[in-house]
Design brief:
Structural class: alpha+beta
Distance between the termini: 51 Å
Helix content: 25-40%
Strand content: 25-35%
Number of strands: 9
Largest sheet: 4 strands, antiparallel
Number of helices: 5
């Protein structure tokens, strides 16, 4: 007899998420993908004219030059390491990854059953999940409304970090700062 947990496991395995798909990609390719989409949008290419459907029936958002921008993955020291984001009212709704828009919530999921518990960050996809948790979820969505400065600075690309994966979703992270580091 198939249980609900078994069906959920099959569903997770059936769909690949950005962290699973970005295994062979480098940071510059991630940025170039967004640059290509933005160039098509700016040129009026009809294939770039899209609407993003918010998860859980939250409506639709037109994708336009006015609501897309690049976010730096590692701060100003690495300007080419960036990702294209769709935002509305200072809230990041989606990221342009793997030639398509992914809701922030989806970008925090995995279909890889080996990502369970504490997993050291090793790939571009895992580093992107760390960025989403650090800068988007905890940095803006969960920070107090009266706080102007982000809670965390972007993690340097070589900083040791670990993500907590629970039931196919990134639930938290921790990092180890090197002695004498300023971040």
């Amino acid at each position: 007899m198939e249980t609900l947990a078994t069906r959920e496991q099959k569903t997770l395995q059936a769909k690949a998420y950005p962290v699973d798909l970005l295994s062979g990609m480098d940071y510059e390719s991630l940025g170039r993908s967004g640059e290509h989409f933005l160039a098509a949008l700016q040129s009026g290419d009809a294939s770039a004219t899209q609407r993003f459907i918010l998860p859980d029936g939250g409506g639709e958002v037109n994708i336009s030059e006015s609501n897309v921008s690049f976010l730096s993955l590692f701060g100003e020291e690495h300007p080419r390491h960036r990702v294209l984001a769709l935002s509305e009212q200072d809230r990041v709704l989606a990221l342009y990854l793997c030639s398509g828009w992914w809701a922030v919530e989806e970008a925090l999921r995995t279909s890889d059953p080996s990502r369970h518990g504490l997993v050291e960050v090793q790939s571009v996809g895992e580093r992107l999940v760390l960025f989403i948790l650090n800068q988007i979820v905890y940095g803006t969505q969960e920070s107090p409304p009266d706080q102007d400065n982000p809670l965390f600075t972007p993690h340097p690309p070589r900083e040791q970090a670990t993500i907590l994966w629970q039931e196919g979703e990134a639930a938290g992270f921790y990092t180890v700062k090197r002695k004498g580091g300023s971040h």
